[in-house]
Amino acid sequence: MPCLTLVQNGKEEITMNIKEYTKKDGTKVYRANVYLGVDSLTGKQVRKVITAKSEKMCNTKISRAINEFEKNGQTVRKVSVDDFKDIAMLWFDSYKLGVKPRTVQIMQTRLNNYVLPALGEYRIDKVNSIILQQIVNQWMINASQPLNGAYHRPKGKGKDFKINFNIVERIFKHALSLGLVKDNPCVNVIVPKVRLESTEKKVKHLTAEQLKIFFEYIGALPKEKYTNELMTGLCRLLVASGLRIGEAVALSWSDIDFKTGSVSVSKTTLRAVIQSTPKTDKSNRIVLIDSKAVEVLKHWELFQAKYFMSIGKGKQELVFPNRTGGVLDYQTMRPFLIKWLRACQLPQVGFHGFRHSHASLLLNADVPYKEIQERLGHASIKMTMDTYSHLESDNKIKAVERFESIANF
């Protein structure tokens, strides 16, 4: 039985046996139960089982484990933070405890697509204002590139790069509070304004005339097909209520009152999983819908019951389940929507475009911003005004016409 003696700090401290084992398939492995020492943080003894295909490899892995234990301050817990990525993930671990899953997902995407590729490998104490300025400038250059007819910007070329820089600022503030850096290099960075192509709209939406074309088209699609019937009801509800697509997919039939024409919103979905709370506190709301939307939903309810009965299932709780009765992954429906919009020669607005269309129609019908905010479930009226004020094209014309009618001087 091989025996290994290790010397640490000039003293012979560790002697252990390396045992040879024969596996069922006849191959041999070497294993040792290594005593690393007493953990400096917990005060507990630390042992680690080392396994290797040869005695020599086992000796190497034992030495490596002991050296790593010593290098890490005689603890198995990571306490050192060297790279920007280390402090970024430390900040992110704290951040995600206080936000909703969807917000965590968005932040994770921004970290992975922008922040970490640019700064992840840098030592946190070596990042200076010049490095950050160069990174921000490159983000601006990427964001200024034209879409060339594409609907979405390529990964890494988003126009809202200021949000990414704000994340970097927050990470450095966290590092500063932990004493990992002496100052915040973000303070001296100038964030340039992005020059967007003039044809790029802030909000993608459909006009009343375009919506009429779209619903006439899907109304002429073959009936009695599950996808066609589901999408007809879903799209009609979205444009009639202004709900987020995740909120609509999370609806149960008990959330809809056909007598009053009201829809109660209290849930949302994330990756086809229902979340018990919606996006914000203001997202908990009751939205009234028009009689046409009620009529379409009643038709969908009857079709849904008939369909699931035909496959041996009873009445479904969800308003828009998938074909098997589970939570609908609305991304699987997006290709149908885009196909139909293209067939109508309409802008490819996506599901969220119906929400924007709802807001635009209300604005041009002189509905107050406060009412629109409540229907959309925005956290503040400022958010509603900042997002949709430029869609009041009809109101601008009405304002001039009204002025002309009273300007008799």
3D architecture notes:
One of its GO terms (molecular function) is DNA binding. InterPro entries: DNA_brk_join_enz, Integrase-like_cat_sf, Integrase_catalytic, Integrase_recombinase_N, Integrase_SAM-like_N, Tyrosine_recombinase_XerCD. The protein has 409 residues and is α+β, with helices and mostly antiparallel strands. The longest helix is centred in the C-terminal third of the chain and has 20 residues, at 291-310. The strands form 4 sheets. Strands 3-4-5 form a 3-stranded antiparallel beta sheet, covered by helices on one side. The chain is extended, with a radius of gyration of 30 Å. Residues 7-12 have low confidence and may be disordered. The protein contains 14 helices and 10 strands.
CATH class type of the largest domain: Mainly Alpha
Structural class: alpha+beta
Quaternary status of these chains?
A: single chain
Strand order of the largest sheet: 3-4-5
Between the first and last Cα atoms, what is the distance in angstroms? Answer: 110 Å
